[in-house]
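Colleagues,

Please find the record for the two-part complex below.
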Amino acid sequence: MLHLKALTDARWFAQVDAHLDEILIDHAHCEKKAAGTALNLIFHYVEDRELCQEMTEIVNEELEHFHRVLELLEKRGIKFRRLRPSQYGSRLHALVRKQEPERAVDRLLVAGLIEARSCERFSALADHVDDPELADFYRSLFESEARHHTTYTRLAQHFAPEEVVNLRLEELYEAEAAIIAEGEPLARMHS
Amino acid sequence: MLHLKALTDARWFAQVDAHLDEILIDHAHCEKKAAGTALNLIFHYVEDRELCQEMTEIVNEELEHFHRVLELLEKRGIKFRRLRPSQYGSRLHALVRKQEPERAVDRLLVAGLIEARSCERFSALADHVDDPELADFYRSLFESEARHHTTYTRLAQHFAPEEVVNLRLEELYEAEAAIIAEGEPLARMHS
């Protein structure tokens, strides 16, 4: 599924069942961070016109999702608050190479990878949760996360030939599967 | 005009006449930075629902302006590129107090101040440039910058009483007028 090397297992669903409120709050933070990632990519690769255009759409969509999660929290009487993030994002970002153009390839692939995992988790959550409103909500986000994954992966080819990108994608997606398999004690969207 | 303590003078118009291309490129960078400022405010004040809503709209609008400037550059055969920024933004940000809630007040007032100055410069440019397409373009941006100024100034009152905000606004706007009067050798939107 979307190049992912491992699917979500029972350990995470147990975290969801025990801490659904935290998962929802963390989800809002993830949407906000996704908007920040896309905006940062505009800042760093301003000369790439297509990238700027695509990233602008992603910023808008992620912020729209952010507000949809906030509304959901409000409706459920869950106060939005700061939350210690999972290590998932920082562990992935640590894999990004420092030199350009490899850095651009990795930043785009990692962003696409996080979208892919979010997409997989939304799909898993839609099937897992009993609450129909919540299930519909997760289903409604699925398509755009899949699209973002594709956009990021395609844009990586602006910075390296397709076969080079694909080799690196394999490496990063293997590393991500290992991080997910290891898991984290905090209940988070990507724990 | 919009609380500003000094209007743009002949020195800046001379920079515009000599380096219009750089002013246009810098303008694109300014729109991008304005989107970043609004997104950062969401990151720092996530608990303020109205602020998050207003900042989201500003992010979207600034990115739309960014693309409009990019299109204008393309149409004129001007290559968008990195540019050493003016000192204006960093000198204003240096005035932001470190402790909350004063920090929030200052960040919002400084953001509103930059919008006010942009607004004043767009209005001045619309009257100054001979090119009717460019004059119309600047005129079309005027209204939203004025609205953003009002939004930021109003949101500052979420973090301090109105009279405290107004006193601080006076101080910051005096400091800004001094920075603008001093000027800078680089031709920039806020030089």
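Chain A touches chain B at residues 28-29, 32, 35-36, 39, 42-43, 46-47, 49, 52-53, 56, 59-60, 63-64, 66-67, 70, 74, 80-82 (CB under 8 Å).

Comments are welcome before we finalize the supplementary table.
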